[in-house]
Design brief:
The chain has no helices and eleven strands. The protein has strands spanning 3-7, 10-13, 18-25, 34-39, 46-51, 57-59, 67-72, 77-82, 91-99, 102-106, 110-115. Strands 2, 4, 5, 6, 9, 10 and 11 form a seven-stranded mixed β-sheet that branches. The protein has a four-stranded antiparallel β-sheet with strand order 1-3-8-7, with no helix packed on it.
C-alpha cells in the first residue's frame, strides 16, 4: 500500500510559480511511474505530467514548456514545478502512483488558485 501526500498548493498571481511536492510512504516508489493530475470545478480530472522509473517524462500539451516534473528517489518524493501560471491552471492537483496498468494510488489533492 502506498500513501501519497501533496503539498505546496496555494494562491498565486498570473505569471507566478509554485512547486508542488508529493511525498510517498508505505513503499518505495522508485520502481513505479508517478504522475500529476488536476481537476477544475465542473471539469473532469485531466493528466498533467508523469515520470517513469528511468525518468522519462511526459506532459500534457497545455503545460509543456511551463511545468516540470521530477523525482527524488532518496526522498521518495515527486515534484511539479509550475511556471508562468495562468488562471486556467487553477484546479485541485493530485499526485498518483502507478500500479499494474493503471494509476492505483492517489493523494488527497492540493488546491492551486491563480488570480488574474
Amino acid at each position: 500500500q502506498v500513501q501519497l501526500e501533496e503539498s505546496g498548493g496555494g494562491l498565486v498571481q498570473a505569471g507566478g510559480s509554485l512547486r508542488l511536492s508529493c511525498a510517498a510512504s508505505g513503499r518505495t516508489v522508485s520502481a513505479y511511474a508517478m504522475g500529476w493530475f488536476r481537476q477544475a470545478p465542473g471539469k473532469e480530472r485531466e493528466f498533467v505530467a508523469a515520470v517513469n522509473p528511468i525518468r522519462l517524462k511526459t506532459y500534457a500539451d497545455s503545460v509543456k514548456g511551463r511545468f516540470t516534473i521530477s523525482r527524488d528517489n532518496a526522498k521518495n518524493t515527486v515534484y511539479l514545478q509550475m511556471n508562468s501560471l495562468s488562471p486556467e491552471d487553477s484546479a485541485v492537483y493530485y499526485c498518483a502512483c502507478a500500479g499494474g496498468n493503471d494509476w492505483r494510488y492517489w493523494g488527497q489533492g492540493t488546491q492551486v488558485t491563480v488570480s488574474s
